[in-house]
Amino acid sequence: MRTMELKETTQVIPALKIEDQLISLARSHEKITFENPVGLVSESGIQAILYYLTSALELLDLPQYENPQMPPKNFWRVVFQEVGFDWVTKQGTWPKRFMKVAKNQWKLFPTCSDCPKPDIKELITQPIVSEVGSIASRNVEQCRKFIYDVTSCFNWKAGDFGDDGSCFWGTNKQAKDMLSDAHFLALRFYHAERPTEGIARCWIGWEPDTKTPVLFNGYGMELIRQVRVLATSMGVMYRKVLLQNNGSCGGMLYINGGNGFALGDTEVTSVDFDLSDPEKESTYECVHCGDALDEDDTFFVDDTCYCSDCHSELYTDCSHCGQTMARDDVYSPDCADNASYCSRCHDRLFGTCSCCDETGWMDDMAEVEDRFICSCCFESHYEKCDNCGKVVKKDDDGLKEWGESGEDLCEDCWTTIAEIKHMDILNFFRVAYAEALDGNYSSEEQDYLRQETNDLLDQANLDKWEDA
């Protein structure tokens, strides 16, 4: 087993040289041990940041704009790719670089003619930047050991390298012959403590013209992480590319997500392997009913083939985010006319009333003492103070009507306003009474003032002022 030392800087190696290195590794049958650098933000951390940004911007209130233009998901992917994964570089920490790159990319991003384009600082506010930095720092990987090899022999069993869900060992098993005939390779990873136990793999193909290595269809570990380990250990660059075979991501050589990663300093942005399909007319078979399928009639779920009828029977799409999910995992609240939702969207959009246990839209729920109450139960059991908005139960002390305005007030507001009103009247009376004692008013006028004051107290539902 050979140990690779991390180079100080990433060096640019021509694609042909990288191809020779990979072929040499495959022929040597050696396992390479590599320890990745300390302080890289993990791929799962990047995904968590992407999810947070998408959610935060959906909730962002920009009243100064009417239908403002918002950054799409592919905008953030461009930003992440430019920022990189290192927590600290000479340009600063990850959050600092993120904000700088986002600002520059947003200036370059095309402006929609129908939608005003806010400044990036109006979109990515300081609290959002702080939360992005917190997520990134929580997902910084420490030093980790990887063991891998490169092989041209594809005779392992399904699942030996985290790939028990791959159709290349099922309906598309002839794809391995296509890979072998084209002299493709496999990158395989092993458990760091048990080096004979496989944990992940991906394929290494060649761009037809330049022979640039392209990694695709990762299993057991995110493809980007496999790419990062191999590229860093070899000291080369990499970039994401669009990937097809014969103009399609489907067919016998099914390509997950329609993309891969090219190694080396290359200008390649899209690759078509152009490998011939040995049995193109009978490529697919529905795993549920067994019917043979044409490519146009095939539906894929996690690399598994289904005919149209079986796919409709077993799966559906989330009405909110469009994610495909098994019908057994669907949430269909009555309040949403039985539309289908995935668990994540259901938890975000709906809540359960603490009074009647009925599911309802979160926008229609009232939050009372950390509990959610539907509108019907709220109207039946609760009322809201017209002054401060405090919610109280109707069967408790409830609200009191303020005599002058007819407003329904909670006990605190009623008491506060009453005390203020009481003091205003008493102060008026004291001033008038003091003037009367100075001889400014006759005894009849003094009695009149006293009666007027008490009448005002009566109107405000307040206690009468008595002489000291």
Structure keywords:
single chain; 468 residues; alpha+beta; 4 domains; 9-stranded mixed β-sheet; two-stranded antiparallel sheet; elongated; disordered C terminus
Molecular structure report:
With about 475 residues, this protein is an alpha+beta fold. The protein has helices at about 15-30, 45-60, 75-85, 95-110, 120-125, 125-140, 175-180, 225-235, 310-315, 345-350, 375-380, 410-440, 445-460, and strands at about 1-5, 30-35, 40, 90, 90-95, 140, 145-150, 185-190, 200-205, 215-220, 240-245, 260-265, 270, 285, 290-295, 300, 305, 315, 325, 350, 360, 365-370, 370-375, 380-385, 390-395, 400, 410. The strands form ten sheets. It has a nine-stranded mixed β-sheet. Helix 3 packs across helix 4 (about 95-110). The longest helix has 30 residues, at about 410-440. It is elongated.
Q: Can you describe this structure in just a few lines?
A:
This protein has helices at residues 15-28, 43-59, 73-83, 94-108, 120-123, 126-138, 175-181, 223-234, 308-314, 343-349, 375-381, 411-440, 443-459, and strands at residues 2-4, 32-35, 40-41, 88-89, 92-93, 140-141, 145-151, 185-190, 198-206, 213-219, 238-244, 259-263, 270-272, 284-285, 292-293, 299-301, 304-306, 315-317, 324-326, 350-352, 359-361, 366-368, 371-373, 382-384, 391-393, 400-401, 408-409.
